[in-house]
Structures are given as C-alpha cells and as structure tokens.
Specification:
single chain; 438 residues; alpha+beta; four-stranded antiparallel beta sheet; 15 helices; 10 strands
Length: 438
C-alpha cells in the first residue's frame, strides 16, 4: 500500500495551477538550512492532504535538495555515499553524456544552477497570480529573518493563453500521457499501458524488477522519496515559426510539418490516428487520444517519422523501466502568432521524477533525444529537445520519395538544470533535525 500521507504531493498529483514560482536556495551553514527547513516543511503537503483539499486550496508547496544540499544540512558522509553516483556527481558533471554541449553547456546556464552552492529548491504552484505574490511575500519575510539562507535565483511561472488546456509556447498540448502507478487509485486510459510498480518512481517499494534494493540509507531518509531532474528549456518560438514557413508552403502544410516534428498535432491529436488533418475532438477525448501503438500501426513512420519527439513511446526495449513522471510549467510571456521575435526568454521549466536518474532520465536524454543513430536513422536527433547544431537532419518517410530537411536549427536551449532528491514528509522532519542530540 502506498503511504499517501508520507509522499510529497507532486509525485502523485498534478494540481490545477495557472502560475507559480521556483526558488533556488543556498545554505551558508547547517543551522541556517535546518532553521529554514523546520519552518517551510509545515507548508509542504502530502499526497493525502492535497487529495482531500485540492478543490479548496490555491497554493501547493514542494521542497527538494541537491546532494550538496543534503551535506549542507548535516547528513553524514556514510549516508551521503549510499546515494546513486549520478546524483552525487550532479547534472553539471554529466553534461556531455546528457548532450549539454555548445549553447546548452552549463557554462551558459543562468540563476546559479551550475553552482555547487545550489542546495535546495522550493516549488510553488498557485491558482492565480494574487496567491503566488502572497506566498512569495510570505517566504521573502521568512528568508529575511533567516540570514544564513540565500536565494540564488527565482523563476516565475505562467500558463500560456488561451487557458483551454495546458500547452507550451510552440502551441503543443501538454499533459496527455503519464504513467499510472500501481496502488495510486488511478485507472490508465486506453493505450497508456498497465499500472507500473511503485518502485519505478517511489523509493522503498517493489519495482518492475522485484523488491527494492540499493536504497539510500538510512531508510528513514529514503523511504517515500524520489529523484527529480530539473530542466529549464528556452523555446525559440520565432525561430520555430520561421522554420515552418521556410519548409512548408500553405498554413495547412506548416501545421502538418509541426505535427511531424512532435508526433502529434498541436491540439494533441495523435498523428498516427489522424495522419492528414487535425482532429481536436480526438485530442480532447482521453479514451482515444493515447489509444495507439507505433510498432504495429506505423512501423515505417509514414504517419509519425521515426525521429519525431514522441516516437520512443513504444518502440524501445524495456519500456516499463524507462517511464517517467513529468511535472512543471511554462515561463515567460506569450508571443502572439503575428508578432516578430522579441528577444524575451520564454520556455518550459520541468521536472522528470523517477527512482533511477541513470536508467530513466539519463537514458532518455542520451539515447532517445541525442543518439544520432537511434532507430538507425543516421544523423538525426530529437527535433524538439535534442542538441541541434545545424548539421543534422529530419527525415519524413513518404511514398514514392521521402522528404529530408537538412541543417535543422535548435528550437530549444537548456538554460539550467539540476538533480534533486525529493524526500518524503517524515524525511523532511529527519533532515531538519539530523545529528541533533536527543
């Protein structure tokens, strides 16, 4: 049985937020970090609390820590050594393997995210801007009283209009496909696969391979926790629109090209079920919008190119051990369709939640997003989030002659990232008092 009262809500629930804020913190000493955590943990809601109050609440708070942050809180070296190597090293040290080179390199990241002094993140999701500002003011007052805690940077979040459904700045519908955890009470939609063992996402439970193993110690710290890979991706909206205009003629042809890049129409309708035109009614129907299989329905990629962003869905081995939970939001102002590029940064600031950063998140980045020869394509990377340097291709299968676009530009740039440990509720209490004499 899942211990809903000890699991931070972000792991199991998506809250109805339209805005929010991320704050990235550094602890100057252990006392400062623990003092801050002792107060903020009272604001952190469990999955059980949010399930019972989600209709009434307007704000939801999550707290997580880097490996350096756990050390700054006073976790001893023996315990720190039991955490996975990739988490101990951190995202900056893993940059080349993740494809974070060139413009994406950590040297170009903003907000102190590449600094070893990054210790914690506070994630605030809010129902509206007024509630966000109220919470920010409240936290700022507390930080001002806690002189040994520094805010390295912050990022304000904002949903992209129109607010009919969640979508990114490119216009693609989001939040369509998420794994269902066994015991969560959720029922998978058709095509989403059977519920997965909770240990794929939550530490201390059996996973698809069997009983839990190699957990960080002590168990009090790791149980009901997870790992989060944070990625801040700038979306180059003007560049994307210009690419569509240059490589497709009519507005209808441009929309089809956009769908080929993603694997879905911007409405969210799957291209494999509606290959020639958009179908918003299909997109809005959760009983149909995920009910497809690439391997059997489109093995050659005539509907969805093998190199498209969504293609790895069911065409890779061991898929049940590669699934991830995605949370996050958009940031920056909306760029109207008829407006030129304005130089203002906008994008997605998202979290990938998983029990194994190396098996789940890092595999997806290294193989699915950035392996030039994934699916034996040769000289292709994920057209949306892969590291594009202007030398790669995007091939669209078509009879009698396929279309090949060369010199694909980068539509996104990594502006920051980090690996965080997401403790359970009891573990937050443990971290606030670890090492204290009782």
């Amino acid at each position: 049985m899942l211990e809903f009262d000890d699991i931070q809500h972000i792991l199991l629930m998506r809250v109805p937020a339209l805005t929010g804020r991320y704050e990235f913190l550094s602890f100057r000493n252990t006392t400062g970090g623990r003092t801050w955590l002792s107060a903020i943990r009272e604001k952190v809601q469990s999955a059980a609390e949010v399930r019972a109050s989600v209709e009434q609440e307007k704000r939801w708070v999550t707290v997580a820590f880097t490996w350096n942050g756990l050390r700054a809180l006073g976790v001893d070296e023996a315990s720190l050594a039991t955490f996975p190597e990739e988490f101990r090293q951190g995202m900056v040290a893993r940059a080349e393997m993740l494809g974070d080179t060139g413009a994406n390199h950590p040297d170009n990241w903003v907000g102190g995210l590449a600094s070893p002094s990054l210790h914690a993140i506070v994630i605030l999701f809010a129902g509206d801007e007024a509630e966000r500002e109220r919470c920010v003011t409240e936290h700022n007052k507390f930080i001002a009283q806690c002189s040994d805690v520094e805010v390295l940077s912050s990022l304000d979040l904002a949903a992209v209009p129109p607010f009919i459904y969640a979508h990114d700045h490119f216009g693609y519908r989001d939040r369509l496909s998420q794994p269902v955890i066994e015991g969560s009470g959720e029922v998978p939609t058709p095509g989403s696969g059977a519920p997965l063992k909770p240990g794929e996402f939550i530490l201390g439970y059996p996973d698809e391979a069997g009983p839990p193993a190699n957990l960080p110690q002590p168990e009090t710290l790791s149980r009901n926790g997870s790992f989060m890979a944070y990625r801040r991706l700038q979306e180059h909206v003007g560049r994307f629109r210009e690419f569509l205009r240059q490589n497709a003629g009519t507005p209808e042809e441009q929309e089809l090209l956009a769908a080929k890049l993603m694997g879905r129409w911007r409405s969210g309708a799957p291209l494999v079920l509606s290959p020639t035109k958009d179908d918003p009614m299909l997109a809005a129907d959760p009983q149909r919008n995920n009910d497809f299989n690439y391997k059997e329905m489109d093995p050659q990629g005539y509907a969805v190119p093998l190199g498209s962003h969504a293609r790895p869905r069911d065409t890779a081995a061991n898929m049940n051990r590669r699934r991830m939970i995605r949370r996050g939001a958009t940031y920056g102002p909306h760029l109207p369709e008829d407006a030129p590029e304005d130089g203002v940064e906008r994008g997605i600031a998202a979290f990938v939640i998983c029990a194994s950063l190396i098996r789940q998140f890092e595999f997806a980045q290294n193989v699915w997003a950035n392996d030039r020869n994934f699916h034996e394509l040769g000289n292709e990377r994920d057209p949306v989030i892969g590291n594009q340097d202007g030398t790669l291709e995007f091939k669209i299968p078509k009879r009698p002659i396929r279309k090949k676009i060369t010199g694909l530009p980068a539509f996104t740039t990594v502006r920051g990232g980090a690996y965080f440990f997401l403790p359970g509720i009891k573990a937050l209490r443990y971290l606030a008092t670890v090492g204290d004499v009782r």
